Amino acid sequence: MFYQDWWNSTSFSNYYRTWNIVVHDWLYYYAYRDFLWFFGKKFKAIAMLSVFIVSAAVHEYTLAICLGYLYPVMFSLFLCFGMVFNFILHDRRKNPIFNIIMWASLFLGQGVLICLYGQELYARQYCPRENPTFLDYVKPRSWSCPLKI
């Protein structure tokens, strides 16, 4: 089975486990357990954070390949809000209001991603660089575009 009933999740940890079973199992067996062995059983939170960093980096790398530019919004949102919500909205929260909070944050996160990546795409199309340096390829162009976006 590829997924379980992630839409009924009342916690982000449950959502991450049920959204994509194949990826979750792979990350658990080949990343989390290795990080847990490396850091020791006392540091489960650090092992979990390491898995989040790897997953966020792979997601951002995939998006950078597809779009043709690096704009680490997904990486930042995944690490900041994804990790915070994973610890705050944990599995002990069973009230349906937490499912509503989860859905609202998913909608809000998708909207922020679409707006910011669209803004960066617009800036890259209409604010070309003359003699770009390596830093110009890494730094978001929407931050320094003279056009009013």
Structural key phrases:
149 residues, acyltransferase, transferase, transmembrane, Sterol O-acyltransferase 1, cholesterol binding
Can you describe what's shown?
There is one protein chain. The protein has helices at 12-19, 21-39, 44-67, 73-88, 96-126, 134-138. With 149 residues, the protein is mainly alpha-helical. It has one domain (6-138). The mean pLDDT is 86. Keywords: Acyltransferase, Disulfide bond, Endoplasmic reticulum, Membrane, Phosphoprotein, Transferase, Transmembrane, Transmembrane helix.
Mean pLDDT comes to: 86
Rg (CA only): 18 Å
Q: Please summarize the sheet with the most strands.
A: none
Number of domains: 1
Order of helices and strands: HHHHHH
Beta percentage is under 5%
The count of helical stretches stands at 6
Low-confidence stretches: none
- Helix share bin: 55-70%
- Structural class of the secondary structure composition? mainly alpha
Would you count the extended β strands for me?
0
Q: What is the global morphology? A: globular
Amino- and carboxy-terminal Cα gap: 44 Å
Membrane topology: Multi-pass membrane protein
Pfam family, one: MBOAT
Subcellular location: Endoplasmic reticulum membrane
Protein name: Sterol O-acyltransferase 1
What is the fold's blueprint, element by element?
Layout: H1 12-19, H2 21-39, H3 44-67, H4 73-88, H5 96-126, H6 134-138
InterPro entries: MBOAT_fam, Oat_ACAT_DAG_ARE
Keywords: Acyltransferase, Disulfide bond, Endoplasmic reticulum, Membrane, Phosphoprotein, Transferase, Transmembrane, Transmembrane helix
Subcellular location: Endoplasmic reticulum membrane
